[in-house]
Specification:
alpha+beta, single chain, 17% strand, two-stranded antiparallel sheet, 169 residues, 39% helix
């Protein structure tokens, strides 16, 4: 008959194998699914204004990823300096989705006055106007978990919108 000490290695092996099984079945973030979520959310907003859909840009996605990675420590809402349109989202915790970030930006529509082409005083609506900028044709986005566990999302747009003196649509 085996004693408890001789069964310990078998128990540890079984525990390890079970752990691998459980963790391998956890859903992973599929890049194609996330890309589709970003595009569907953007294009739903654009469609509501009769605008053509955006296409996905790998170049913009790579730049968004690079910029997000630079912000991983501190999760700061700082814009890059290149000549692309850019929307940034920060959310406490890591449960935020691509769709929720785009919806947050699109919610700024309530602060935009089309007839004067301005945002309400004290309000920002430039994330919304970038989404619906007629001449923008492509977008690329990245989502990361910051070192503090929060969510950071960046979308880059080409060509950029928010040109002073021009209407978005």
């Amino acid at each position: 008959m085996a004693n408890a000490t001789s069964l310990l290695p078998s128990f540890l092996l079984l525990t390890f194998l079970f752990s691998l099984l459980v963790h391998s079945s956890e859903p992973k973030s599929d890049p194609d699914v996330v890309r589709k979520q970003f595009l569907d959310a953007h294009n739903a907003v654009r469609a509501s204004h009769g605008l053509p859909p955006l296409g996905w840009s790998r170049e913009m996605k790579y730049y968004a990823q690079w910029w997000a990675d630079k912000q991983r420590v501190g999760c700061q809402l700082i814009h890059s300096a290149l000549d692309y349109g850019e929307n940034i989202f920060w959310g406490e915790g890591n449960g935020w989705t691509a769709t929720e970030a785009v919806e947050a930006w699109a919610a700024e529509e309530q602060y935009y006055d089309y007839w004067t082409n301005t945002c309400m005083p004290g309000r920002d609506c430039t994330h919304y106007t970038q989404i619906v900028w007629r001449t923008t044709t492509s977008v690329g986005c990245a989502k990361i978990k910051c070192d503090n566990g929060d969510t950071y999302i960046v979308c880059e747009y080409y060509p950029h919108g928010n040109v002073i003196g021009e209407w978005p649509y």
